[in-house]
């Protein structure tokens, strides 16, 4: 797929951050969003995002046609966890492609996990989410959430052609609601959306990112 700017692209790292200082909020406490427990952690970090991100998610949900809900899966990710995800996936790619250079590995890994120093989730600015029906049952968006490009034959790419018509309708519905509310998608992952991070700033032309990586709150 051409035209996709990866998280490892120097244009993303070049975006300056002027952190707004906005607090992380727990979406389970501050909203009626449906929250899935598959990424649950004892500190509840997975359910947190910056306030402005939650406000936009609520706007997006309100704009969905009747019978559709957002299903929130993962928001904030502490930098140490992000580093582990990145290194584990890069090690898997390295085992499969020992001939790749360090730069090739970093770029390929960033199709699926952001390099830790740039990570939108560690800024509390990104959310992995999908659609559910009115009863909270997860809908078909073409792949499982967090399917790698390898296991899904590229069907995890938001604009992939190798998904059913129904999954395409669902992806388009999710995308229309979230982009109208101001979030930006990472084009290699239909479920990953962000607001205020470096990738968002690069994609929207904002002068700087509003949120940089932050350590977990005590
Ligand atoms: C690992 C996957 N769920 C994810 O969040 N990927 C993006 C690119 C990230 O790490 O920010
Ligand atoms: Zn994500």
Automatic annotation (TrEMBL):
Report which reactions are catalysed by this protein. Answer: D-alanyl-D-alanine + H2O = 2 D-alanine
Lineage top rank: taxon: Bacteria
EC number(s) on file: 3.4.13.22
Kindly state which keywords UniProt assigns to this record, in alphabetical order.
Cell wall biogenesis/degradation, Dipeptidase, Hydrolase, Metal-binding, Metalloprotease, Protease, Zinc
Give the record's cofactor note, including how many are bound: Binds 1 zinc ion per subunit.
Q: Which SUPFAM superfamilies match?
A: Hedgehog/DD-peptidase (SSF55166)
Q: Which residues form the active site?
A: 189
Q: Which GO terms describe its molecular function?
A: D-Ala-D-Ala dipeptidase activity; metallopeptidase activity; zinc ion binding
Q: Where is this site: Transition state stabilizer?
A: 77
Similarity-based family: Belongs to the peptidase M15D family.
What function is annotated for this protein?
Answer: Catalyzes hydrolysis of the D-alanyl-D-alanine dipeptide.
What name has this protein been given in UniProt? D-alanyl-D-alanine dipeptidase
